[in-house]
């Protein structure tokens, strides 16, 4: 038996630290959220990955009787004491000191303004309304974090249907026919749709339309060839509204308005 290289399947150490920090973050929310780690597929929208506590490094041995230079100012002072320094070098070091000071002030200013706009907007609201808003936020965050890749794919497919339905209708109008071969329709869809989808992916969307709109689009198989028939009496505005509503539900866009 060949020995497998387990390093390829290992989770990077820093990523593991971040993953382990997420449940603790969720427990501190208002209201708190307790989600099994196996159900988490994404970060919480407010979880700041770059602010996870740093790993405490082991102490390195200190050099014997050595002075530590921790800033450009220390280097400049040491240079003055050790030798008659070059004016150009002094000017360069002073520029470094000035730039470092500006950077520190900018970081401090940014941290002072770190409160999210949403948190500021919620200030002053009645307690009952505030709790309702936070509950909706928590429900939305839960949906985002626990939605599986398969659910993501389905939601994406539903979001494409309104545009694909409009292209289909225009195709039948241009061709001036009530029935068209499936392969012909798929080819034309590939040329007209804004995304670069494969024939297989386009067929998936067409079959989804067949299932969701059985009276508007119908599949016929004649002599081992599939044909699509589009209803002449179908109201396109109603078709579009229905597909947009279904797409919104799949993407849980109605969650915030309930």
Automatic annotation (TrEMBL):
GO cellular component, one term: nucleus
GO annotation terms (biological process): DNA replication checkpoint signaling; DNA replication preinitiation complex assembly; mitotic cell cycle; regulation of DNA-templated DNA replication initiation
InterPro entries: Cdt1, Cdt1_C, Cdt1_C_WH_dom_sf, CDT1_Gemini-bd-like, WH_DNA-bd_sf
Alphabetized SUPFAM superfamilies for the sequence: Winged helix' DNA-binding domain (SSF46785)
GO MF term list: DNA binding; DNA polymerase binding
CDD domains xref list: Cdt1_c
Disordered: annotated span: 100-119
Protein family per UniProt: Belongs to the Cdt1 family.
Stored PANTHER family: DNA REPLICATION FACTOR CDT1
Protein name: DNA replication factor Cdt1
Taxon lineage: Eukaryota, Metazoa, Ecdysozoa, Arthropoda, Hexapoda
